[in-house]
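Hi R.,

Here's the chain you asked about this morning:
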Amino acid sequence: MRAVEILDLPHELYAEAIRLWEDAGLTRPWNDPKQDLQRAVAGPASTVLAAVADGALIGTAMVGHDGHRGWVYYVAVAQADRARGVGRALMGAAESWVVERGIPKLQLMVRADNEAALGFYARLGYEQGDVLMLGRRLDP
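And here is the predicted structure, written out as tokens:
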């Protein structure tokens, strides 16, 4: 496997990150991924981590915290680079990012029908919590 570097997503790779999210099936019509990315990189308690190999973006993880819990979103790895440890490296970097800020817990949401993702996170030691996620759209 080629050498992978994990770093904050460089501005010049923003469009590639959005394409990666689209290719991975992570985007939804009601969420603008460009706005999600802009909010994450502009916020004081969030960032987007990039996995880069040979100058190419091959993975991402959006990570942030609310002061109590860390959250990770948009974990994506290019199809050609899956099952090579890139996702594991991104999650390790996200966990370190949260721990460095004194946050004791990292959480994420996975769609119930995404069995591949559920298996991936289970192998990393993530467990399903006994909670229901509720939400309400506040944008017009």
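One quick note: The mean pLDDT is 92.

Cheers,
M.
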